[in-house]
Structures are given as C-alpha cells and as structure tokens.
Design a protein that fits this description.
heterodimer, A: 222 residues, mainly alpha, 10 helices, 86% helix, elongated, B: 204 residues, alpha/beta, Rossmann fold, 2 domains, 5-stranded parallel sheet, 4-stranded antiparallel sheet, 32% helix
C-alpha cells in the first residue's frame, strides 16, 4: 500500500523536476501578489500588520489554484491515467500519492517563502512563526480539496474557470482558520486553537478527498 | 477464459451494438474488426472494466469482472491508442515507472533488454519528446516484452510501426498465445499471427 503511494510520489516529483517552470511560476505569482499590497497601500505599519494574514492566505489559495488543472490533466491527455486506473490497487491510493506530491511542489515552497514575505508587512517574530506553521499545516488541505475539483472538471472545455468556482468556496474554512491563527497571535490570544482546527481540516481532507477524486476520475474515464 | 454475455453498448444517443456474446479460451486471439465508429474501442474499454456495459456481463475465469475488481486488473495488460508514456522521462524511466505503478517487479537490466528488443538501443537515456511517433509507440510496446499477465487487450497496436516492427510484434503475440495467454486486439491492417487460434469478430 505504501509502495504504490511512494511510487506515485517518486514519479510525480521526477516529472516536476523536469518541468521546473511550473513550480517557479506559481511561487513567483505568490511572491508578486503578496508584494503588491505593501506597495499599493503605502508605509502604514498598523494597517499592513492587520492585512497581512488575509493577503498571504488569499495569495496562497490563488497560487495553489494555478497548478490544479495539471494535477490530472497531463496524465489524462497522454493515457497514463488509464494505466493508473487499471493498476491492481485502489485508485484512491494513487490519488493520495498525487495529492502528496502536489503539496510538496506547490504548498511546501509557499510555506518556506512566507516568513520572508511576512517581513514586508512588519509582522512580529511570533506572528511569522505562526504564519509559517499555519501555511505548512493548511496547504495540504488545499491540495486535497483541489484534487476533487480537478477530477470533476477533467476533460471539460474551460475547465479552469469552473475549477476555481468549484474549489474556492470550499477553501473558505482553511482561509478563516489560517488567517485567524495569525490574527489571534497578533492580538495576543494565541493561535493554537486555530492551528488545531486547521490540522483537523487537513487530516480530514487528505484522508477523504483522494477517494472522492478517484470516484470522479472513474466517471471521467468512461 | 474470457466470456462476454449479451453485451450492449450505448454511446450518447446511439446504440453501437447489442446482444454481443463471445467466449475466448487460453491460447486464443480475438481479432475485432469493423468500420470506424462501430464500437471496437468501446468494447475494449468494457473488457478492461473502464466502461460499464449498458446491459450484459463480462466474466473472467467464470466470475464477473465487476466483483473481481483488483484481482482482474492484476491479470490484465492494456495498451490503448494513447501511448501512456511521459514526454519528459527517458524510455528507460518510463518503462521502470510503468512497471512500479502496475505493482510489478522489473529490474533495470530487464528493462534495458526490452528496449533493445524493440530497437531502441542507444536511445534509453533520451527524453521521449525527442523520439519519433513510431519510436514512442515502441516504448509503449516494450512493456509487453516482459509481460506475464495472461490477458492482453491491444487497441490498434500496429499503428505507426514499420514492417519489421509489425513482424516482431506479431511474433510477440504468438509467443504469448503459445504460453496459454489470451489476447483481444483491433487492427485495420492484415496481420499474420503465426501461432495460436485467431478468431474474428466483426462489429457493426
């Protein structure tokens, strides 16, 4: 069981390394969107501190969205997805591997760069730590939920827009608890409660979403 | 033994075929024929379990493939009209990745040997995007060289191959039938399979 998940992760990471432009463009999108806000709003530390969690999280959601259409799209186009569906193990395990690989190339880089971007918003050291932790814990949920949307819109024309309409509303809980954790730290309430809820969301979506995606993929392959 | 019982196929609003029944024993090849759009590929997709038939049942060794699920897929090798190879990976990486994802053991030496047999010696380490159509097809076919699973489902396997490769593939299918394997394939080319029993089925 673990073997197949590792095999999928290994293959997807190797493909991602051969196509680094994809990873780099989503990361630069995140950096640029976040950096535009301090430039547009001007040097008012109080206001920037207040806006920071929301801005960083919304940018993280949008950056994750960018790479979702390719999650199954490439495999569908070249016939690999059929072969994966025909392998003698549940398709849900294959999708679990793909979700983990997607997080490693799209979510993890965002979490690593977030503290640097947070400095532009005059966040305190505590808030930066919580911000990084929140993005680290919350982004797997984005990959998981996104996989359902990517599977449902597979092979549709104009699927990209439809994908955003389907998936962005489902990202709202992650956004609320993710940004809330940083807010709570800034106001001195402590962000642990928010982080726990975020972890619960991630566990639920990474455990459940691959099986829902697998069901949608089987319909797409008919 | 593969059995199809009273299969019906509806795509969109059109009924492509109905009441299709056949039985294939070990060592037999079923050659599907029919004009374009007569439902050959749809039938193959039913046989591998990706497309549920409108009515009727498909049985493998006497049991419905729907209930066998993973066990049936472990006995099956499918080659579609898409090559299922990754353009960014080399032929060797493609072959090893495909085997791992199918849950099979394939050593690097065996993979290199298979690539040599399909005539890709010296191109093992070249990304597949630099290969020609025929060479990409050969990468996909290299999977069959070490394939020990008993049921082969091949959708237009001879497309884009040159005459020598067509003969080689016909020999490979013969060897599979002689080992007691089963195969179902579609092709528009007249192909001579030297061994095994070839049965023909015309759709439409």
């Amino acid at each position: 069981m673990l073997g197949i998940i590792m095999a999928v992760i290994g293959r997807d990471l190797k493909l991602a390394m051969r196509r680094q432009a994809d990873i780099v463009s989503a990361l630069f999108f995140f950096i640029i969107v976040v950096s535009l806000f301090p430039l547009g709003i001007g040097p008012e530390p109080g206001l920037l501190r207040k806006l920071a969690p929301g801005v960083l999280w919304v940018a993280a959601l949008l950056a994750t969205m960018l790479s979702l259409p390719r999650l199954f799209g490439d495999d569908h186009r070249d016939g690999t997805l059929e072969q994966l569906a025909l392998a003698p193990h549940p398709l849900g395990l294959v999708v679990t591997g793909k979700v983990i690989a997607h997080w490693l190339v799209s979510g993890l880089p965002l979490a690593l760069i977030a503290p640097v971007l947070g400095v532009q918003f005059d966040l305190s050291a505590d808030a930066l730590v919580v911000l990084t932790a929140a993005i680290l814990i919350g982004t797997p949920a984005l990959s998981g939920i996104g996989a359902i949307g990517a599977a449902l819109t597979l092979g549709l024309r104009g699927g990209g827009v439809l994908l955003s309409l389907l998936v962005l509303p489902l990202y709202i809980p992650v956004l609320i608890f993710g940004a809330g954790a940083v807010d709570a730290t800034v106001t001195g309430l402590g962000g642990e409660g928010h982080l726990s809820l975020l972890a619960a969301l991630t566990l639920a979506s990474v455990g459940f979403a691959p099986w829902a995606s697998a069901a949608a993929l089987k319909i797409a392959l008919e | 033994m593969l059995e199809a019982d009273n299969l019906e196929c509806v795509r969109g609003e059109r009924r492509l075929f109905a009441g299709l029944t056949f039985r294939l024993e070990a060592g037999e090849l079923l050659h599907l024929q029919g004009r374009n759009g007569s439902g050959k590929t749809s039938l193959l997709r039913m046989l591998i379990g990706l497309l549920p038939p409108e009515s009727g049942e498909i049985r493998w060794q006497g049991e419905a493939i729907r209930t066998l699920a993973d066990d049936f897929r472990g006995e099956l090798c499918y080659l579609g009209h898409l090559n299922a190879i990754k353009e960014e990976l080399t032929p060797l990486e493609n072959l090893l990745a495909a085997a791992r994802l199918a849950g099979e053991e394939l050593s690097e030496d065996d993979a290199l040997d298979a690539l040599e047999q399909v005539g890709l010696a010296g191109r093992e380490d070249l990304a597949c995007k630099y290969l020609s159509q025929g060479q990409k097809r050969r990468v996909a076919l290299a999977r069959l060289v070490r394939e020990k699973r008993p049921l082969w489902i091949l959708d237009e396997p001879f497309v884009a191959l040159d005459a020598a490769a067509v003969d080689w593939l016909a020999g490979l299918i013969s060897a599979h039938l002689q080992r007691g394997g089963l195969a179902v394939m579609t092709t528009h080319q007249p192909v001579n399979i030297p061994a095994g029993t070839v049965r023909e089925l015309r759709l439409g």
